[in-house]
Amino acid sequence: MKFKSLIIILLTFVVNVSAQNLTSFADMNYKDEVRTVMLHPTESDLDKPVVFIYQMRNRLHLQFDILADEAPYLYYTFIHCDNSWQPTDLQKNDYIKGYFQDEIKDFTFSVNTFVNYVHYDLVFPTADMMPKISGNYLLVVTGEDPNDVYFTRRFYVVDDKATIAASIPRYPFDLKLGTNKQEVTLEVYYKDNFNNRTDQYSNVTIQQNGRWDNAAIGLKPTYVYPEKSSYVNNEKTVFESGNQYLRINTSSFTNRPEKTKSVYREDDMYVVTLHDDTQRDIKNYALDEDLFGEKYIYLERESEDATKEADYAVVNFFLKWPQYMFGKDVYILGALTDWRIDESSKMEYDTDRKGYKRSLLLKQGHYDYMYAVRDNATGITSVVPVNGDFWETNNMYTIFVYMFDPTENYDKLIGYSVIKSH
Fold first, then answer.
1. Which residues contact 360 (CB under 8 A, 6 or more apart)?
2. pLDDT over 50 at 3, yes or no
3. Which residue, of 106, 127, 292, 385, has the fewest CB within 10 Å?
4. Which pTM was predicted?
């Protein structure tokens, strides 16, 4: 234990340097061998990675794979961020109790798979390393060199002192925005945290499903009353309703998976080709339950352990589209691409087949997905051109309430709530 403590102390300065070298404080994989990263509460594989400051026994479960034959030594640390996901000026001993870095010791090798990988598990916070204050946190996983970053993931520590009342009216406040849009209206009751600078020090974030590309960040109240703030009539809280997510299921390669045209093995790897997708019916809504864009790793045979026995497959997606969309790009959106709108999820237009194509390496399981179109001139991403826009769509909205403390110089996360549109 004394030796471990000495190592951690010696690495403290280097860990701080690694934070400065990050290119983004978002969910990002820095190495191609990193796959299937999932971070959720221990009791639910689909909920947001949120823990409460006074209930640290309700911990978070990190799972991920490294495509390798041998297990690299991996470590993790935390970085405290403000409400807009920029690192705060706090020192690590201001927000971490215990070690500033610890090793991820729980791993297992894949069994009977064509693609070899090492599966890692981490349940945290631990007695050795625990957040001390509320706020946004970035989990950073590195190699033995703290500057050798493997991936980063966001999580939240809540000091629950605000009450949130949220609703979604049938029409947005401004019908010019579209009658099928979903507007999130809020009333936040601050109780002991209310002060005469609430409009200056408070910030609210609203996230639709797992998306960050259209999240409303840094919202200020429309009206401030004694003991509460109201968030209404704000264009930033009006979201595209979109449509229910499409889905694929690769939990079995012997029984042809859902939506699958073919499954075969090529060069010691499974290849799954999906039936072609087309523009969906943009006039008529059809109810179809989904996982709000999430992924769930499992195998059809319950006797098998998906963490180490699920194989990886190349999954081929194709969206029929009559011609290339100039000035716009098409992306595969959802947890299967870590909700990123970048080169890792971007599709390529095939002039011969007349459509957009993309192949993804995915572990066996259930995946929600949707096609999104990004306008390169405005930077705005929309799901409407391919999927339509229906107020009846069931979306999940996560609300975070922050209050900046000028004496302690950080954004306290004092409120958290999840609502569904239907």
1. 314, 315, 317, 332, 336, 337
2. no
3. 127
4. 0.93
